[in-house]
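Note to self: the last two entries modelled the partners one at a time, which told us nothing about the interface. This time every component goes in together.
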Amino acid sequence: MGIGVIKLKINEQEVISREGDTILKAAKEHGITIPTLCDLDGLSNFGGCRLCLVEVKGSPKLFPACTTPVSNGMEVITDSERLKKYRKMAIELILSERIHVCSVCVANNNCELQDLANKLGVDHVNFKRDWNTHDLDTTHEFLVIDRNRCILCTRCIRVCDEVEGVHVLDLKNRGKDTEVIIDLDDQWGVSKICTSCRKCAKVCPVGAIYVEGQPISQTRDKKIAEFVLTRRQS
Amino acid sequence: MDKIVISPITRIEGHAKVSIFLNKDGSVNTARFQVTDFRGFEKFCEGRPFYEMPSITSRTCGICPVSHLLASIKACDDIVAVNISRSAELLRRLMHMGQLIQSHALSFFHLSSPDLLLGMDADPSVRNVFGLIEKYPEIAKKGIMLRKFGQEIIECLSGKRIHSSDWLVPGGVKNPLSKDKSEKIMANLPEALNITLETLDIFKDKMDNFKEEINNFGNFPSYYLGLVTSDGGLEHYDGKIRVVNPKGKIVADNLDPKKYYEYIGEAVEPWSYMKFPYYKPLGYPHGVYRVGPLARLNIVSHCGTEFADKELKDFKKFGTDGIVQSTFLYHYARLIEVLFCIEKTKEILEDPETYGNNVWSKASVNRGEGVGVAEAPRGTLIHHYRVNKEGLVTWVNMIIATENNNLAYNKAITQVAKKYITKKHLSEGLLNRVEAVIRAFDPCLSCATHSLGKMALDMQLFDSEGKMVDRLVR
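The predicted structure of the combined assembly is written out below.
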């Protein structure tokens, strides 16, 4: 076996991967789907949403597939009753943290959170919901951030930093009070370094950042985003 | 004073109860129509971007989301200060025709026809749409067909039958109407027209059985208010406000709907969550006016389409000076409006401008305030928003069609109660008559108070010490 080649098993299937790759990447390359929300090809890994949790034989812990590197002899399970339960719980926790009302959301029918919730059969939120409101910023000419819908996946922050290279967006506070901020917590409309490139709106998986007056189906195309990002890297 | 309570009222949209207060001798003193739920749209919309208002406020109602959408989107047009293209206006009008047809069909066939066809005193377990299907399957089927026709217009335009909020946008509509969809609507149009004409005949045949109801169901003088076209014709989307007095005299015409607050006041009573709008020049509580199909036909000189105009002439025979004041005849007016809407649908679909591609004039906040007014199936609907310079809503006022009739409801039920309640005892048929007069208005209380729920009937009779002496639960 050559140097850097890793042999592991995913769902009983023999898989060959490269050293340094993540379980998620190895699984994707072999056509095995693991649900994700914060992950996006072309961006650094964040490990925030916990949707990609997998079981690794020999450990009682669950591992996020997007940040766990593969190793020789690893045996990974990507789908089990236990994982289903935890993934469902992860979605419910995300839903409980902010105000997610699909029916009046710009991202309705074009939302990764909604799709996943449907797929995982989330029909109720079994946690106490936090109805506290967060700031909504419409001061930018056409970009809008509604923090009430934000799931803190940080895709926007990563794309702004790693691809556009301006790092306008970042986080403030901790825990459930965490919020995406513009510059040093300024209004978007007064930001001098934002290039208005719209990449943040393109990668947002929910209706938190969007282009005003345009249907999300037009402004958001995960494939286009991935194409732009991956091409840029290769 | 004794008190009778009917709670909740059945076969209407929303929650309400009726309290009837009796004198010591058992005769009716007064009756109150109480709306028992609260939803708070005007408050929780604050802080949202104005362009979300149509999709949020249309959730006030699942029956006429389109009317709310239109009033809301017109308020948004006002905020962005844009005149929409004629094609967009025609498409919006077309969608509203679908809304009016489906809502009126629902009100007439599903909610009210069991009273009209099976009789007011029929067993309540069969006096509903299922009883109707059993006894008059053809009529029930036609009612469902007619409603479907209306729903399909909405679907063809926006892709969804209910809460199709993202097709209408400030400045117009998102997509033009394709020819094949228009043909789909056209194909079903003759059938819808036939159903309506036949139903009108059936209704008119039955009218003789309801002479007593016509005379006693909220048959009282009131003012009438609504939108009219520039030449005084029937209007549901735009136009100016006209107010007509009980004698048929136009007391105010060409009023700007955007300045509704100059002539409509809103009073609040501690016993109901529904506000009491009144006509300002008359003051409160004397400024009783009615809106909705009956009012609309009372204020117009003509409908503007062939069949509807013919029918309007027959309709006016039930009144004097061109004013028909019996609330029972709301049903008749509703059917005439369905006729008008079907004919208008045809007219719009035959207009080449309907198929224009220029349907969306894009703009952002240009004004801090916007008012949108439309004629919903149940009457004049007003949405009024104020926004900050970033377009976030800071203040909302909505006057829902049903609210306008609030003072009239109280008058009407008092009249019915006085006629039918003479002893301290409640009978089923009597209860239903009190309910039926409310049903004739076709109130949408979920809208008017922004509440939600299922129906049942609980009527209670209280003696002068407030002790319950009789109760009927359905």
